Amino acid sequence: MCSLVHLPRQAGLCTQNNIMADINLPKPVKLFVGILSCNKDLLEDVESLLVKRFGELEMKSEIIPFNFTDYYTKDMGAGISRQFICFRKLINPEELSAIKIWTNELEDKFKHNNRFNVIRPINLDPGYLTHCNLILASTKEYYHRIHLQDGIYAEVTLFYQHEVFKNLPWTYPDFQTEEYKNFFLEIRGLYAKDISNN
């Protein structure tokens, strides 16, 4: 027979009055997609397809040279650029896995289009932003990623503290740049207005 174990309050399992906290549904989040391509004209084509699927565009970044690694060069070619696009409509965080599956399917359609002279014309990185962090979807399992469903994992890539986004040990080099962080700070400001109006 097991005896009842009393955990100290600092364990964080109970509120101050020893009543378990209520379960609350998460707030909607701000969806964005990062696009990589060596064909700048293709960025507009992809943008129109994403808008058709996820709704009105709210904001997009400048086209940023992606020179942080040569990991993608073999499949995507030289002179890769990155652009982020952010959507007006908020999503529920649990939608991220289905969104990642859809963007992977879109990538495959471009792969099989013979008008491109590279193996992988585009790379799409969907994610979302909350008040306190930036989440990216991934198909790759690793110790810092949590499985959502259907082989899709979620990674906290940046966290927000003291009015800035901060890195984690696994944060990708490009996401560590001030250019990226400043863009996401703008998105966070839009998100704050969205949440306050809901």
Helix content: 25-40%
For the largest beta-sheet, the strand count, sense and barrel status come to: 9 strands, antiparallel
Low-confidence residue ranges:
1-15
Structural class label: alpha+beta
The dominant shape is: globular
List the total number of helices.
Answer: 4
Report the radius of gyration as a whole number of Å.
Answer: 20 Å
Question: What is the rounded distance between the termini?
Answer: 50 Å
State which percent range the strand residues make up: 25-35%
Mean pLDDT: 91
Q: What number of domains? A: 1
Q: Report the count of strand segments.
A: 9
The SSE string, one letter per element, is EHEEHEHEEEEEH
Could you please describe the fold and organization of this structure?
The structure is a single chain. By secondary structure, the chain is α+β, with helices and mostly antiparallel strands. It has one domain. Helices cover 28% and strands 29% of the residues. It has helices at 40-54, 73-76, 96-111, 178-197, and strands spanning 29-37, 57-60, 64-65, 81-91, 123-129, 133-138, 145-149, 152-161, 164-167. Strands 1, 2, 3, 4, 5, 6, 7, 8 and 9 form a nine-stranded antiparallel beta sheet that branches. Strand 5 and strand 6 form a beta hairpin. The radius of gyration is 20 Å and the shape is globular. The model is unreliable at 1-15 (pLDDT under 50).
